[in-house]
Specification:
Number of helices: 4
Helix content: over 70%
CATH class: Mainly Alpha
Shape: elongated
Strand content: under 5%
Order of helices and strands: HHHH
Largest sheet: none
Number of domains: 1
Length: 109
């Protein structure tokens, strides 16, 4: 049991660190999305990678709502990237707001 408890403690510590870093990660994602809305295709790719990474990391730590909202934003960015277009600003902003709300709800439990 000690090994299992130790692993759980390590995972909890990593999750807590992720939660502490989340405001900065969301700010980075917001900045990347703003650049994508007015910039080049490479900016869309950067924003997409931020959303993808956030979705996967949140899922790893069992933050299902946060992961789902990041995946939704990722889909918006991926569609724009595939079409060679800038993402829909209103949709991206709405997704970011929902992502922030999910982050607040899931990291304050």
């Amino acid at each position: 049991m000690t090994g299992s408890s130790s692993k759980e403690e390590k995972l909890r510590a990593l999750r807590d660190r992720f939660a502490a870093d989340l405001p900065a990660l969301l700010e980075d994602l917001d900045r990347a999305c703003r650049a994508a809305e007015s910039g080049a295709a490479s900016d869309v790719h950067v924003a997409h990678r931020h959303a993808h990474t956030l979705a996967g990391t949140a899922g790893t730590f069992g933050l299902a709502a946060l992961s789902a909202e990041a995946r939704a934003l990722e889909a918006v960015l991926r569609a724009a990237q595939d079409a060679g277009l800038r993402p829909d600003t209103a949709d991206a902003r709405r997704r970011l707001d929902r992502l922030r709300q999910a982050a607040r709800l899931e990291t304050t439990r």
